[in-house]
Every structure is written in C-alpha cells, then in structure tokens.
Amino acid sequence: MALIGPGGRPVTSQPAQNAAADGAANPHIKDSGLETFAADVLEASRTVPVIVDFWAPWCGPCKQLGPALEAAVVAAGGAVKLVKVNIDENPEIAQQLRIQSIPTVYAFSNGQPIDGFQGNLPDAQVKQFVAGLAGGGHAQEGHGGPEHTAEILAMADQAMAAGDLATAAQAFGHVLQDEPGHPQAVAGLARCYLAGGDAERAKATLQLVRPDGASDEAIRAVEAELKLREAAAAAPAPGGYGELEAKLAADGNDHQARFDLALAADAAGERDRAIAELLELVKRGRKWNEDAGRKQLVTLFEAMGPTDPRTVEARRKLSSILFS
To answer: Is pLDDT at 9 greater than 60 in this prediction?
Structure first.
C-alpha cells in the first residue's frame, strides 16, 4: 500500500500528543504524516501490529477515544504501537485510505490493514481491541499456509456456531495477521461484530478485504445481512404483528402489510416466517413495488448462503411460483 504525496510539498506532523508526566514521549505512541506514514505504519507493522488513530482537533469523540487508546497501548508494553494521524494536516492519507468519518481506527500488520472500527467505543471495548492485537502475536516466517488457514477458519466457524464470539474473532484475526485481507477471515470477523450488535464496525471490517476478494461469497453474505439489518431497523416492532396480521385477514392482497410482516419477522429472528411471507407475496403480487418481494428473498438467500437448506428449499419454491 503506497501513499503518494504531492511532489516536493512537505507535510509536517504536529508534536506527539501523548507524553509522560516528565514530558518524555512514550516510545510506543507517535504522530505521523504523509512523509513518514510508510515508515511509521507500513514498515513498522512488519515487526509489531500498529494501530492508526485518524482524528482532528475539532472532533469531540476523538478527544474521548484518543486517551483510551493511548492508555491501552501503554499497558500493552510494546506488543502493539499507536500512530496518530491528524486528517486536517494530512488529507491525502485520509483520502487514499477512504476515511469517511472520524474517529476511525485501523490496525495494520505486515503492511496491510487487518481490523478497525469507526466512532468512539467504551473503554472496555478499546482495551479488548488493543489486547486482541497485542495477544495475537505476529506472523512468523514460514507460519501459515493454506492448510493452516483452513484449520483456523474451521475452528473459528465452530466457535461462532457455539456462540463463543471472542474466540471466533481471535481466530479470524489470527488468519488476517498471516494473510491480510483474506475474504473469509474478513467476513468472519465482520460476522462476529454483527452478531455482537455492532453493525458499524462490521461495515468497517468489510473494507479490509483485499481487492480480489470483494466479490467473494462470504463477503457478499455479510453485505446482504447488513442490508437486512438496515431494512429491519425500519420494520414494525414484533409487537406490531397483530395489526399487520389483522390487515392481511381483512385483505390477503395487502402487499405492503405482508412485506412489512416479513421484515418484522426477520428482525425478530423468525427467518423461516419471513421467507414464507415473501414467497406468498411473490405468489400474489409478483410485480408489486418493482419485484420487492423477490428482491428481498434474493437478499435473504445471499445472507444465508447457497448451501443453506432454507435457501435450497426456498429457491425451489420461488422457481415453482415464477415458472408456473
């Protein structure tokens, strides 16, 4: 990842923010700019994970997050480093890394981003983020390989299926340290955040995928799940089932009520019911609202994956309806 600045134009970085009581800067925390970013972050991350805090003086949440990050990095005792980048002074870096809001935090290893989040986090989560990087170790020469990666990914999937999100996230992060941008590991880590209710961090994690993995099935599945979550946020609350069901009892062709009921069911974790309602919607009003029912079903199929038994069965039923 090369950062190219304007030819010949010097970019200065403000003095280090974090200092001990005696005024000496902490050796594990530094400010960086366009001219030094490659050395401070990309090269340094080949030895130890480097966290980059993108901030600005006018950003209130940045002032809350910064000290928490610094304290956690100091506590890590050199197992991880922190680099602070003022985006007002270094807009080129923010543009090239697609920083859309601040605070934004990326963790780098082997010259590539492997994790990150946007916005402020509670101190406990900041400590967990830093500790995970510090405790994950750094990829060693000769470590990894396809078989090792497959084994760790399988362990991560098993942990996630068992509800152990912390272990799953650590395993996915381990793969990303060996293979930055690995699509299945990126998707897995994003799923961990999504399962924990942190949709924004899941979105930020998806941006870490390497370019050739952006269309990977696992990445598309998480993107689809995020779309469903966004739709669910606007859906009627589960307590509103009665009103929607009453509307459908009065008029079985009230397509909006059926669509809303499907969204509400999925938001409540009743995906089977959501699928059933959408199939019925397609059957009754195939072209309603520009194929909204069929499109929502396709999003569900992407989120569940092509081999999920629910996907296989629902696709069969959908095809029967469409070609009848």
So the answer is: no
Confidence of residue 11 (pLDDT cuts 50, 70, 90): very low
At 6 the pLDDT is: 36
Residue 179, domain CATH? 1.25.40.10
Question: How many domains does the chain fold into?
Answer: 3
Which residue among 81, 111, 138 closes a domain?
138
The two tokens of residue 318 are: 């959908």
Active site positions, annotated:
59, 62
Per-position DSSP letters for 120-179, written without gaps between them? ---HHHHHHHHHHHHHS--PPTT---HHHHHHHHHHHHHHHHTT-HHHHHHHHHHHHHHS
Same domain, 84 and 117: yes
Q: How confident is the model at residue 63 (pLDDT cuts 50, 70, 90)?
A: very high
- Please tell me whether residue 141 adopts helix, strand or coil conformation: coil
Is 11 within the bounds of a domain?
no
Residue 241, pLDDT > 70, answer: yes
What span, in angstroms and rounded, lies between the C-alpha atoms of 23 and 140? 36
